[in-house]
Amino acid sequence: MDRPLPDPAKLLASWMEWERGDETPGMVLKNLKVGGLRGLLEQLVAEIDTAPPS
């Protein structure tokens, strides 16, 4: 089963729920995991690794 691409806006919204105190840390971690945070971070690291040195 293919997962949808991570949605950075939704991931940020989940994080902000925790910062405002609207959600527990455990629920936020669950939402970040289900929302694809790992894939987004892996993608960013791959882009950094392949970027030409500045």
For this entry, give a set of tags.
extended, mainly alpha, 0% strand, 54 residues
The profile of the biggest β sheet is:
none
Radius of gyration: 14 Å
Distance between termini?
39 Å
Task: Tell me what portion of residues adopts beta-strand conformation.
Answer: under 5%
**What is the residue-mean pLDDT, rounded to a whole number?**
92
Provide the helix percentage: 55-70%
Helix/strand order, N-terminal first: HHH
Number of helices: 3
> Structural class from helices and strands?
mainly alpha
Poorly predicted segments = none
Count the beta strands: 0
The 3D shape can be described as extended
* Total domain count: 1
Give the SSE layout.
Elements: H1 8-20, H2 25-34, H3 37-50
Give an overview of the whole structure.
This protein is mainly alpha-helical. The chain has one domain (8-49). It contains three helices and no strands. The protein has helices at 8-20, 25-34, 37-50. Helix 1 packs antiparallel against helix 2. The longest helix has 14 residues, at 37-50. The chain is extended and about 40 Å long. The termini are far apart. The model has no long low-confidence stretch (mean pLDDT 92).
Offer a quick outline of the entry.
This protein has 54 residues and is an all-alpha fold.
